[in-house]
Amino acid sequence: MYDLNDLQSFAMVMETENLTESARLLGVSKSTLSRRISNLEGILGQPLLLRHANKMSANDAGRAFFPFAKKILDTAKQGKKTLDHLQDEVVGEVDVTVFSSFARSWFPNEVLSFLDKYPDVSINLRTDSILSHDIKSDITLWLGEIKDTHLKAELLGQVSCGLYISSGFSSRYKNPETIKELEDLPWVNLHNLYTPSDELELCHNEQGMEAISIPRSRLLSDQIGMQMEAIVSGNGVGILPDYMAERREKHHPGDLIRVFPDWQLPSLPMYLIYPYGHLPKRIQAFLQHLRTGAVDVLV
């Protein structure tokens, strides 16, 4: 209902009883100061001050309203101090969006360890496989190239990927001796880590670049876990982030076999996306937590 600038202008004039001095203290022109007081009087429906050249004094209405104006200004000031305090404490909610593949990956443990460290923080987590142009989350953790965004996009590093088969698949099919022979094998292509395409490029330090055709899957999922389980079950050759395969090896040795380890797929960039400017401590803390945690999965 009331504009705080109008209330502040009125209160200052009440204290100084001088238009010029009040304008100087507030850092505004006398015309701006007069307009603010007139705005307040218009809202209240009656004058508050008596004007005498450069001097102003309160009428009955002004004297009656002044304590209420001061109370409103003091309450607003206290509210600002409370919010400033929140900026300095790791408390409150953090809205986070992550690339869907991270839902079953290293990310859940990072979230849980952060919550253990900061018991006054809560996290609202959602996953997505398509990066929205209108990001509303406090923090977005993304895998893959991103288009122009009005938010800050911080490149954390690159995630390497490789071709994998299961030990059971290896026993049923002859291991390919050349890259082109991969085209004759069954493929698990449930998750498009790369832009959907019928072609996959691999690079060798000495032999250069080679492209192979891969079949499109009739089943697509944004959950990389389904891709890994289908490969482990022996359904074909498939792409996995190397860090996921390495973690699988620790818990289930021999489940996955790297195919053509000397051939590299294009690495995928990992980004942290968040607003520009000063951020609350809880967001700063979680960003730093993710920077530290992501080191283990980046190359």
Automatic annotation (TrEMBL):
Coiled-coil ranges per UniProt: none
SUPFAM superfamilies reported in the protein's UniProt record: Periplasmic binding protein-like II, Winged helix' DNA-binding domain
Listed Gene3D superfamilies: 3.40.190.290, Winged helix-like DNA-binding domain superfamily/Winged helix DNA-binding domain
Keywords: DNA-binding, Transcription, Transcription regulation
One GO-annotated biological process of the protein: DNA-templated transcription
A Pfam family assignment: LysR_substrate
Annotated GO MF terms: DNA-binding transcription factor activity; sequence-specific DNA binding
Domain HTH lysR-type: 1-59
PANTHER family associated with the record: HTH-TYPE TRANSCRIPTIONAL REGULATOR (PTHR30537), IRON-REGULATED VIRULENCE REGULATORY PROTEIN IRGB (PTHR30537:SF66)
Family indicated by similarity: Belongs to the LysR transcriptional regulatory family.
Name used for this protein in its record: DNA-binding transcriptional LysR family regulator
Organism for this UniProt entry: Marinomonas balearica
